[in-house]
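Issue: ligand-bound run for zinc ion - logging full I/O for the record.

Environment: standard queue, default settings, no custom constraints.

Inputs:
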Amino acid sequence: MTELFRAAKAATMIPDAPVIIDAAIIVSQGIIREVGTYSDLAPSFSGTVTDLGDVIIAPGLINAHSHLELAHLRGKCIPGQGFVVWVEDLMKQPIFDLDDGELACAIDEMKRTGTVMVGDIATRFAKHMAGVLEASGLSFVVFVEALGEALPKKTFIPAGEYGNGIMSVAGHSLYTCHRDVLQAAKKEASARALPFSIHLAEHDEEVSILTKGKSPFLEILRSRGRLLDYEPPGIHPVQQAARLGLLDETTLAVHCVKVSDAEIEIVRQSGASVCLCPRSNEFIGVGRAPWEKWLASGVNLCLGTDSLASNHDLDLFNEALYLKENFTGELTLDTLLAMITRNPARIMGVSDKFGTLEPGKQAVFSTVPEKVTELFS
Ligand SMILES: [Zn+2]
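Outputs:
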């Protein structure tokens, strides 16, 4: 069946292309066939016409960073008191009591709010998460999270064939993984031409642990028998990630709050992408990333909700709204939408399917909510 979708406006997200007024998109077999104005495409079209009305449509959204395993912790964690309070509280929670009902709710929330793909970190249940996401119809990269001091016996990435997604590997962070583990994880992702993800420069504790080897969080880890022989490298997180060879064009560095101008330049030169999680940073109380400097740097910038242990919901438009409301200086609708469409498509390796509305791509749209569009009027 061939269908024509009509909308008042379409933000195709093709670089430098203007928003199409009175737009039409012709779709068959789930693939976009033509994109243009209604007046150009309608006269020669025969098939079903669906008028979406007075809305701006955009490509389906990509959430570059979430932890769906923690869906059952919605509303249960302590906000606004800094990383140590947050993580101590988190470690008392039933982190690994996966709840398929809450998981289904979280995935449904993503789908209802325009998300079509997620880059999801799985600490313990990667194959289960991939299976659930596959069944849900959401596309995905499930990042198997490397954590701790020991290298796995075979590979980080379990075998599994999925129609809607892939599995790759992430390092949890510079301060919770041995450097050998991080380098091995990155090496495995690179060998398979897969994206690699790592939480980087998220909070002051991380900076203290790396530069001085001192932090209440490090003491917590050591009291649990972890990182007993940890030696601080004596340099800042971005510098250490670069020294370990973790930053390149297939790396997605998540958070990047505690960074200097020189470190932004290190990331830019590496070609790595950055995922900002503004509401998670605010929730935990770690401060705010230098968004404006990241944007000015030209780095491929993405947005993620992070988990429901550090956010109120998984609605990417709410993430975008928060960024726009708190941004200093100019942030255009195109730039904002790029961070949840074509930019994450690039780092996730799915630019052939998602990220823009153009012929040959998957026919998946989001509708930009009025609460977002009115900030630009
Ligand atoms: Zn995270």
